[in-house]
Write a structure and sequence with these properties.
By secondary structure, the protein is mainly β. The chain has a domain at 41-115. The chain contains 1 helix and 6 strands. It has one helix spanning 38-42, and strands spanning 18-20, 28-30, 46-56, 71-77, 88-89, 104-115. The strands form 2 sheets. A 4-stranded antiparallel β-sheet has the order 3-6-4-5, with no helix packed on it. Strands 1-2 form a two-stranded antiparallel ribbon. The N and C termini lie far apart (55 Å).
């Protein structure tokens, strides 16, 4: 019987082990030690593409988003001519969004969750 190496690429959550089964050997759990990924995970942010979404045409993005301790929500309009997004804070709605506001516009934008407090 000829042995053949088969490359295997996995996209995993580094906090949890991968369980390998071959069919003839006992199952084995393989994981990463937390010191190899903890720092990177603590400093990662989240960026989501949002749109199209109806918003007032006044450069304020009044959305109700979940509060996450130690993190801040920001948004940036999707602009092809900009080399990098210009991030702005997300403000809580102060009342009805479209009543007495400037015209309503359709936006494509980026929504970002970033760490606002450094972790020791």
């Amino acid at each position: 019987m000829e042995h053949q190496r088969i490359p295997l690429v996995l996209i995993i959550d580094p906090r949890f082990p991968v369980h390998a089964r071959t069919g003839f050997l006992p199952e084995k759990a393989i994981g990463l030690a937390p010191e190899h990924f903890r720092h990177a995970l603590e400093h990662m942010g989240l960026i989501l593409n949002c749109g199209p979404i109806l918003l007032p045409g006044n450069d304020i993005w009044p959305l109700t988003l979940p509060e996450i301790t130690g993190h801040t929500w920001q948004w940036a309009p999707e602009q092809v001519e900009q080399p990098a997004p210009i991030w702005q804070p997300v403000r809580e709605p102060s009342g009805p969004m479209f009543e007495g506001e400037p015209p309503v516009l359709v936006h494509d934008a980026w929504l970002s969750l970033i760490r606002s407090e450094p972790k020791n």
